[in-house]
Task: structure prediction
Amino acid sequence: MSRTNFGAKPLMYPQPVLIIGTYDENGVPNAMNAAWGITTDFKEISISLSEHKTTDNLAKRGAFTVSMATEDQVVACDYVGIESGRKVPDKFDKAGFHATKSEFVDAPLIDELPLALECKVKSFTDGILVGEIVNVSADDSVITDGKVDMKKLRPIAFDPFNNAYVGIGEKVGNAFSDGAKLK
Result:
């Protein structure tokens, strides 16, 4: 097997496209795109962030939502990652997003993104945001038999090798059962 070396870079699959929703000090919703996030415990998410309008809001409000970006909202989700909320105060509106206040945390749910984790800030140190997941909510449009249906959700991932977004969603096996069949 021949291999190509890319050097020490944050290149890994899949990288979920996470849209972080916050309110500013005046209750204006903001959203930003983040790719470097992962669940780190049963009720915890960690996201690597530099300083942004979002981090200002996190310090003031202590809460945020994390929505999964979707295929049908790829342009809007990319926009909130490229544009700065410090420079464009109505970035949320310009993306075409609409907010509904979470009933669990002081942060906006993004109506156009049907799956969200609703979180309280546990810490933000050295660029690592750690949030306590208080609730996960999903719009009924992406539910089948009481569970989130990935084919209906149509989440996207970031492809860092090609600087692109890709759709995901095809089931290829069952977790915790297919591996048991190896002999």
